[in-house]
Amino acid sequence: MAASKEERAQILQMISEGKISAEEGARLLSAIASHGGPERTARTSEALRGRWLRVRVFSMATDKPKVNFSLPMGLVNVGIRLGAQFVPELADIDLDEFMAAINEGTQGKILEVEDPEDGERVEIFIE
């Protein structure tokens, strides 16, 4: 199944709004094209509509956010798989279990990781 027009439009919108760079957008478009986009039932697709995955990265020294972005839930499956390619630490996380929790309607903070070596804390929320 090819990537939906909606997914491509969301990525292009995020680029135009400056939420992601053109390079990041190109990687996402490439990832959904190569993976054929996430396959979902109508119920799962409806459950994801209007929901967002928010990622915040804080400096532990100042507790000020360094990164704060939101990703439409419709792109999360692709984003997580793409992120796993660039973040070796994600190899320890069961991505299928993670996605199942998201698809079941989980909300709020779902992950918090501290990296004392780099002095960063990452929080992931579903809104």
Describe this structure in words.
With 127 residues, this protein is an alpha+beta fold. The protein has one domain (5-126). It is 42% helix and 24% strand. It is built from 5 helices and 4 strands; from the N terminus they run H-H-H-E-E-H-H-E-E. The protein has helices at residues 5-16, 22-35, 42-48, 76-86, 95-103; strands spanning 52-59, 65-72, 108-115, 120-126. A 4-stranded antiparallel sheet has the order 2-1-4-3, with no helix packed on it. Helix 1 (5-16) packs antiparallel against helix 2 (22-35). The longest helix is centred in the first third of the chain and has 14 residues, at 22-35. It starts with a helix and ends with a strand. The model has no long low-confidence stretch (mean pLDDT 75).
Topology:
Blueprint: H1 5-16, H2 22-35, H3 42-48, E1 52-59, E2 65-72, H4 76-86, H5 95-103, E3 108-115, E4 120-126
Antiparallel strand pairs: 1-2, 1-4, 3-4
Helix pairs in contact: 1-2
Which structural class matches the secondary elements? alpha+beta
Quaternary structure type: single chain
Query: How many structural domains does the protein architecture include?
Result: 1
Largest sheet: 4 strands, antiparallel
Strands ordered across the widest β-sheet: 2-1-4-3
Shape: globular
Summarize the amount of helix as a percent range: 40-55%
Q: How far is it from the N-terminal to the C-terminal residue, by CA?
A: 27 Å
Count all strands and give the number: 4
What string gives the helices and strands in order? Answer: HHHEEHHEE
Given as residue ranges, the uncertain stretches (5+ residues, pLDDT < 50) are none
DSSP summary: helix tally: 5
Mean pLDDT, to the nearest integer, reads 75
